[in-house]
Design a protein that fits this description.
Layout lengths: L2 E6 L2 H15 L1 E4 L8 E11 L16 H13 L11 H6 L4 H11 L7 E3 L9 E2 L2 E2 L5 E9 L2 E8 L2 E2 L4 H23 L4 E15 L3 H23 L1
Parallel strand pairs: 1-3, 8-10, 9-10
Antiparallel strand pairs: 2-3, 3-10, 4-7, 5-6, 7-8
Helix pairs in contact: 1-6, 2-5, 4-5
């Protein structure tokens, strides 16, 4: 299992660099069970984004736009309501049976130096392949760990599995908006002026599906061609 670390200034840069790392250095992996049975390229990856608040949050060539990201952040990360047919959302897990978001806000208002404010999305029954006779898919986003350090709220998140082309750009942008809402509510109640900080992610299986290889290659190729041209000019 190969592991790599990606460091980026903003979210679009993190998306592109992660795709580039997987495309060039990823392990071939045949998925045998899950939402999609197919060949993939995958890496165990850690991503550090130093300025995730920098706009735009979504790269021009990403397969999502800000309208989708805002909807995702509100419905799937912040609000606890599920739509018809959904067994859960990340937000429903965060809000019930304990409203973890509310408890994090209250605790930072009371004690800014608390290091124990971790929100957990995965639950013990998620280890089961079926629940109530129905096939069950556990959440990809498992943990959102918070830390208030030097007046910034930093998030460290773990994805057990991560679609690096289609899922990652919306997921990270949505989590940044979630963090901005979290910080705004802490500030409103505490009278503070905290800001959002770094976003750090870990995933043991950040992958590109084989059906998306063509799209990723088209995205990566111009950058590779540009580097080759720069190398040739440097050798002239």
């Amino acid at each position: 299992m190969r592991h790599t670390t990606v460091k980026a200034f903003d979210i679009p840069g993190a998306w592109f660099r992660t795709l580039e790392e997987i495309w060039r250095n990823g392990d071939d992996y045949q998925v045998g069970y899950g939402s999609e049975i197919t060949m993939t390229k995958k890496l165990n990856v850690s991503i550090e984004i130093t300025n995730p608040e920098s706009r735009p949050l979504v790269a021009e060539k990403a397969p999502c736009d800000m309208k989708y990201v805002l909807s995702y952040a509100l419905q799937y990360l912040w609000a606890g309501e599920k739509e018809e047919g959904e067994t859960y959302t990340y937000a429903s897990r965060l809000r019930e049976p304990v409203d973890q978001v509310e408890e994090v806000i209250k605790r930072y208002v009371e004690e800014p130096n608390d290091r124990q404010l971790t929100m957990v999305i995965r639950q013990p029954p998620d280890i089961l392949k079926t629940i109530d006779g129905m096939r069950h898919e556990p959440p990809c986003l498992t943990v959102m760990d918070t830390e208030l350090y030097r007046d910034q709220v930093h998030l460290t998140c773990y994805f057990r599995s991560w679609d690096a082309y289609a899922g990652l750009p919306a997921n990270i942008a949505g989590i940044q908006i979630f963090n901005e809402a979290l910080v705004a509510e802490i500030n409103r109640r505490a009278g503070t002026e905290y800001t959002t900080g770094k976003l750090i992610f870990h995933s043991k299986n950040a992958h590109i599906y084989s059906r998306l290889y063509e799209y990723v290659e088209e995205l990566i190729r111009p950058e590779e061609d540009s580097r080759r041209q720069a190398h040739r000019k440097g050798n002239v």
